[in-house]
Amino acid sequence: MTTADRYVAFAREARGVSSAYERLSEAVARDDELLARIDTLPSAKRQPNLLFAVVRLLGGPVTDPAAFRGYALANWAAIEAEMRVRATQTNEPGRCAVLLPVLASLPQPLALLEVGASAGLCLYPDRYAYRYGDHRVGTGEPVLDCAISGTAAPARRPEVVWRAGLDLNPLDVADPADVAWLDALIWPEHEHRRERLRAAAAVAAADPPRLVQGDLVDDLPALAARAPRDATLVVFHTSVLYQVPPPRREAFAEVVRGLRGHWIANEDPDVLPYPALPEPPPDGFHNVLALDGTPLAWNRGHGQALTWFG
Ligand SMILES: C[S@@+](CC[C@H](N)C(=O)[O-])C[C@H]1O[C@@H](n2cnc3c(N)ncnc32)[C@H](O)[C@@H]1O
Prior knowledge:
Number of helices: 11
Structural class: alpha/beta
Mean pLDDT: 97
Distance between the termini: 34 Å
Radius of gyration: 19 Å
Order of helices and strands: HHHHHHHEEEEEEHHEHEHEEEE
Strand order of the largest sheet: 5-12-11-10-9-8-1-6-7
Bound molecules: S-adenosylmethionine
């Protein structure tokens, strides 16, 4: 896939979700001068979302393609330096709304271990409130909206007695610089997600998660061994494995299958080897939710809809 192809694919992913990024990505895909600059970076650093978030972080324009182009060319050295040291670590607590039906169905209480946790905001499914259509679960902030179909909304939140996260580069919600990066990663029009980030960060800051710097293959067994034995261990991950090379994904699946407890994966359908999946709903990109290797449902990337398999 050429860099231009990646930007065309991202424009397609952004369609209906962020018209600003759709336009920007289409414009970059046609811009030989910008593409040549981007191609000086290692392949993993050429991601559209990384470029756009860095420009947002630096205060550059991301809604008008011509203004973006002018800014990017004039400030390329600063942009490139940030892109080399940063990674897309979007932390989306809205994904807890997708995890909740599975978490609530497991024997309680739970010990949650998230791999690829970023700042750990998905480690608090028991503290957020949910709205599945007319059905509310829990109270407080943030309130996570999810259109659910094909299964019942959960009756209650899970009971969590232990939580821990593993990440190559854990972010700290108490550090304004890390929160600024998490904010920059949110797409321009998504003000509701910015509010959600602030509310979820307040929940996490009040009772900070145990976040360990490490790799999801090499360091998972040691962290899992620290979970209490009298709780159901749940190892989970959302939107992580697309960042992991295929042989390491396989190694991870082998490690996690060897642990006690349960494994919840919520990932791009291409990253884990599932048998035939039903057609995804027509409206945009969907992840696959799976329990212990069995795929269960499609869901939208930020947790806004969950469609159980028929
Ligand atoms: C896109 S973020 C998703 C964060 C969170 N799971 C969520 O859904 O909000 C992916 C995270 O996975 C982490 N990551 C990528 N490869 C990893 C690895 N080999 N081991 C541990 N963490 C990894 C990244 O650092 C990043 O924080």
